[in-house]
Specification:
This protein is an alpha+beta fold. The chain has 17 helices and 22 strands. The strands form eight sheets. The chain has a five-stranded antiparallel beta sheet with strand order 14-13-15-16-17.
Length: about 525
């Protein structure tokens, strides 16, 4: 293990930072991207070869949504060469989107390079900062809920863990992994869950947990509590899943029994040093809950890494810095003005507009970030929420980022959903097992939501009824199960502060509408 950690650290040191000012680095990246793709049909259509400045780029291309790019992406998915970018897509990744249908995001050799340029140095810094020399790592492995998928042109959908970081990284990931690769091939959810928990329990040398959403590992800890008797039996006598053996491990069984008695994960993973997961926006409460469950480790919030591209990665002090050499970034402020990365101001919030090497030109990601200042010449950007998640029952237009800022800083499940039918308003779904002072929570939320003048007016004239607190048993499991059935990768499921679709209340409670009481 020690050799693998050292090799990972040295690999990150080979990926150097591009010299120059932030403005110069951004133009250098954009100029190279335009030059590479000038001969593509999209590049010829928009005159890439004639663009000599950022302003000229903005004039040549309007900002775009996924639907604007969809016809070009579908041509790439059909196997067309030199359509949206030079050459052919190497792979696609499917993302469920927040409210719309599935999206296919193309990857090229250049977009893989940009991912590597952002992520590998961060991993190397992490190894160095935590002085990781031995032990294993848990990289989130989701169950294979669908078979191998290809686009109409025969291009694979889905990228193997770590493969996007280059040929030399996956062997290191495999060597350091607490779990064998076959766990990711399991299609039965309960078998995957059992194999994952078994694999984690037998590795008392676990040193690093790296997942996307903190809810992913929280749900595993819940399953550990629910299935502890079954796991004790397997660890005592052995077992198996899908013809894969799970040998007995009496030391792990003893640790699990001790954990059941004290509910302290330190007896399971005494050498755990770091937990990396999303920690901004609506994930804050879940991050706090996960940090509390794993007190032996330091918690590092992940940057804003999405299927579409990398926006931020943790810097040396853990703060999320702009990945300036992995894409070209523009930002829309509250007034609608368009700014560049070097023009951002501390304390202000912005919507991200991203250009990637994978053909997403001036793409509105719907991600909202808040600038916390500058460090090492790069803006520090915290994820605030999704601009694309908007609920508008009577003209109030509540955004997910705004709702996330209204939620009290507590642990546990909190999600605002609309009430439709006879009574129009909002319900805040909370965990029935989480102690809640309903009156105080309603007061806190109503005061926060009233900062939106349209919401305040609608409440004042009775267009919207008062907020309701709706306790639900196991709401996190319900939410993740519903999205998992829809085909979303378990490890990538985010739990937003707001879901605007009218059917979420029924999904949680079985009721299609709020009552008047």
């Amino acid at each position: 293990m020690a050799g693998a950690w050292l090799r990972l650290k040295r690999l990150g040191e080979t990926v150097g930072t591009v010299p120059g000012s932030l403005e110069a680095r951004q133009w250098q990246w954009l100029r190279a991207c335009l030059a590479r793709n000038a001969a593509s049909e999209f590049g010829r259509t928009h005159g890439f070869e004639r663009i000599r400045s950022v302003e000229a780029y903005r004039q040549a291309l309007p900002m775009a949504t996924y639907d604007d790019h969809r016809p070009w992406i579908e041509r790439c998915a059909a196997g067309e060469v030199n359509a949206l970018f030079a050459g052919r897509a190497l792979a696609f990744e499917r993302t469920g989107g927040s409210t719309g249908g599935a999206k296919w995001i193309p990857y090229t050799a250049d977009s893989f390079r940009d991912l590597r340029r952002a992520i590998v140095p961060w991993l190397a810094d992490l190894v160095s900062a935590e002085e990781l020399e031995d032990g294993c790592a848990y990289w989130a492995i989701s169950p294979a809920l669908r078979g191998r998928e290809y686009t109409p042109g025969g291009i694979p959908v889905g990228v193997a863990d770590g493969a996007y970081l280059g040929a030399d990284v996956p062997p290191l990931f495999a060597e350091l992994s607490a779990l064998p690769p076959w766990v990711g091939e399991l299609q039965d959810f309960r078998e995957w869950q059992l194999a994952t928990l078994y694999g984690l329990l037998v590795r008392s040398d676990l040193a690093l947990i790296s997942v996307w959403s903190p809810t992913f590992f929280l749900s595993l800890l819940e399953a550990l509590d629910d299935r502890s008797e079954e796991l004790i039996a397997v660890l005592g006598s052995g077992g198996g899943v899908s013809a894969r053996p799970l040998p007995a491990d009496h030391a792990a069984r003893a640790r699990l029994r001790q954990y059941r008695e004290h509910q302290d994960t330190r007896v399971l993973w005494p050498h755990l040093r770091l937990v990396s997961a999303w920690g901004d926006g609506a994930a804050r409460g879940y991050a706090r809950a996960l940090a509390r469950r794993l007190p032996q480790a330091r918690f590092q919030p992940k940057g804003l890494l999405s299927t579409e591209g990398v926006v931020t990665v943790p810097g040396r002090d853990g703060a999320p810095q702009l990945a300036a050499d992995s894409g070209f970034f523009e930002f829309i402020d509250h007034s609608g003005a368009l700014l560049l990365a070097h023009q951002l101001a501390a304390g202000q919030s912005y919507e991200v507009v991203l250009t990637t090497a994978g053909g997403l030109y001036r793409y509105r990601t719907d991600d909202v970030v808040t600038c916390a200042g500058m460090a090492d010449g790069l803006p520090l950007l915290h994820f605030a929420g999704r601009a694309g998640l908007v609920s508008d029952l009577v003209g109030e237009k509540l955004t997910e980022a705004f709702v996330a800022a209204c939620l009290p800083p507590t642990e546990g499940f909190q999600m605002l959903v609309p009430c439709v039918g006879e009574v129009r308003g909002y319900a805040l779904i909370v965990d029935a097992e989480q102690p809640v002072n309903r009156a105080r929570l309603v007061d806190t939320m109503e005061q926060g939501l009233a900062r939106n003048p349209q919401y305040a007016y609608a409440r004042r004239i009775g267009q919207l009824h008062p907020l309701r607190i709706v306790p639900v048993p196991h709401p996190l499991a319900t939410y993740m199960q519903r999205l998992r059935i829809r085909g979303m990768l378990l490890g990538a499921i985010k739990v937003p502060a707001l879901r605007p679709e009218p059917d979420w209340l029924a999904a949680f409670t079985g009721r299609v509408a709020c009552t008047s009481h």
